[in-house]
Amino acid sequence: MIFIKFKKGQGLGNQLWSYVTLRSIAKYKSYDYKVLDFEFFKGFDILSIKETNNNYELIDYSKLKLFREKLYYDNDLNCLCADYDKSILNLNDNSLLEGIFQSERYLIDTNKVLNEFIKINPKKRKQNKTGNNTC
To answer: Cα–Cα distance between 2 and 61 in angstroms, integer?
Structure first.
């Protein structure tokens, strides 16, 4: 099983990139997945995502291996930057993914993953048809 963790101060866009990377890599490697701190997801009102594909009760989180995406410091921009980290394809089971993951290369079979992993909340879709502006 591989994991990501939603953080309190994390933005919706960052959460979605982490989530679709988790789901895409889990599918590619045939691993189960789980989102830790799922209650911090900022898109519950408009989006539907799955916390896990397997409801294990006993997981020893202290034994998880940490996979950190390689980050680079840009002196000109004075910020951390990231690009696709190909070592993710060698990811081991029982790993916690940590990083930005904002590269389309993480989304294996891109045409399918977004529609499969993220759905519009059906309640909000009905509201939109009546003219309410969700965004």
So the answer is: 11
